[in-house]
Design the sequence.
């Protein structure tokens, strides 16, 4: 018999608004996206309002340009996140049912894809408005961790993206047949609350470090340093949590229950770890370039 903490009785839907013959559900996950964008916008707005933090006392954009950029970023997050999920995690399903790429209400978003979408949107916007891309990237990186934190909390509320089975005292008994399908475990199956691990590392710890480096150590005066720290820090955090996170079902087989996708020693790596390695390398390269000369 495996012991664990019962999953709290939290509905993924906060409230349903009656609209004639149908009810419009307001979900925690959607609210997390909205709140993450608004908090990030507020943080970046305050940061560009302090010119002394930036190189040459010049923020990369003004508040009017930030308002215009917000729409581009929302499109980048949604489109990039969905396409990334399809390409990285759901390619087999798309080949069988191409129209499923449009059914976003069925779930499926990838952070790595959303990051690429934001990068493309910010690059195009910066070129159109002649903005310094590296400084803009630093600002966006500083504003991202609150959204990561809220998104992972929403994953927990949705009882999705849970971790691997564990007998540790803080293991959570997630509901559902899939979560309780633990070979060799009798009774309730407790799992690592990997969503909480990610919220703590990617959201709280990484976000606090970026704010400290930006506000206390003057890293915004070295273009590329904050975004480098963010990319490397997220990649390292995600790589570490993947040891406790259950692999996506499309990568799991009877011979490969942990969902490893590439051979790397006795254990191999998950898709999340495989995608995180280039991020760590890219982030370290950005840090090296930012600090190779005096500010």
Sequence:
């Amino acid at each position: 018999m495996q012991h664990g903490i019962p999953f709290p009785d939290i509905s993924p839907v906060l409230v349903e608004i009656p609209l004639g013959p149908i009810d419009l559900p307001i979900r925690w996950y959607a609210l997390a996206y909205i709140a993450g964008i608004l908090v990030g916008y507020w943080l970046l707005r305050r940061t560009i309002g302090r010119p002394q933090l930036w190189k040459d006392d010049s923020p990369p954009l003004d508040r009017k340009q930030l308002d215009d950029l917000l729409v581009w970023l929302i499109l980048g997050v949604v489109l990039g996140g969905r396409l990334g999920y399809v390409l990285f995690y759901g390619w087999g399903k798309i080949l069988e049912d191409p129209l499923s790429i449009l059914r976003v209400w069925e779930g499926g978003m990838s952070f790595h894809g959303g990051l690429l979408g934001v990068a493309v949107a910010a690059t195009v916007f910066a070129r159109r408005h002649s903005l310094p891309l590296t400084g803009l990237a630093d600002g966006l990186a500083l504003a991202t961790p609150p959204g990561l934190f809220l998104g992972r909390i929403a994953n927990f509320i949705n009882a999705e993206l849970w971790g691997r089975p564990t007998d540790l005292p803080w293991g959570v008994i997630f509901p559902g047949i899939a979560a309780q399908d633990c070979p060799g475990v009798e009774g309730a199956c407790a799992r690592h609350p990997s969503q909480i691990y990610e919220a703590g590392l990617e959201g709280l710890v990484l976000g606090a470090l970026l704010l400290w480096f930006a506000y206390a150590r003057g890293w915004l005066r070295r273009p590329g340093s904050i975004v480098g720290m963010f990319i490397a820090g997220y990649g390292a955090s995600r790589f570490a949590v993947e040891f406790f996170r259950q692999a996506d079902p499309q990568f799991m087989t009877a011979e490969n229950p942990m969902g490893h996708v590439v051979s790397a020693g006795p254990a191999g790596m998950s898709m999340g770890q495989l995608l995180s390695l280039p991020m760590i390398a890219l982030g370290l390269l950005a840090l090296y370039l930012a600090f190779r000369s005096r500010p």
